[in-house]
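Could someone model methionine sulfoxide with this protein?
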Amino acid sequence: MKGVGKFGEVMAGEKGKVSYDSLAERLEKIIHSGSQKKAITDFVCRELRKIPHYTWVGIYVVDGPELVLASWSGPAATQHVRIPIGQGICGAAAASKETIVVPDVNADPRYLQCFLNTRSEIVVPVMKDGAAVAEIDVDSDQLAAFEPPDRDFLGWVAGELGGLL
Ligand code: SME
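Reply:
Sure, complex below.
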């Protein structure tokens, strides 16, 4: 199966052990299941949050000039359910169509605060026909939590979602 068996890493933490490969296998199945989009994005958020350093996971979709929160999984809701494209890390990623990794959110003036305990963030755009149609936003309570494997893995998830959203 495409995408499965190439991530290899097992992440361990207080949530237990998570293998990126078995996660990729579950994600691939549900994304291509034909289920409703909202059910799929909810599932994707819940599954991604099993990764120990992923404290809060959300999927925003582009709606005209704004990003709208479609699904999330985490300890608390965010007040940022709509973010203008161009604002915050989320809005910057949608505008630039590039993944943005922020190792220390308190050092980035673009950062829109949602949770007091967030220390680092990654935002990965979901592209379709050259346009950003959605994005995956992950907050971590750990400083500099996101490394190249996270960028690769979330990039793969975003690629799979691009065919759906
Ligand atoms: N921190 C984001 C806003 C969304 S919350 O993290 C859920 C940003 O700067 O765009």
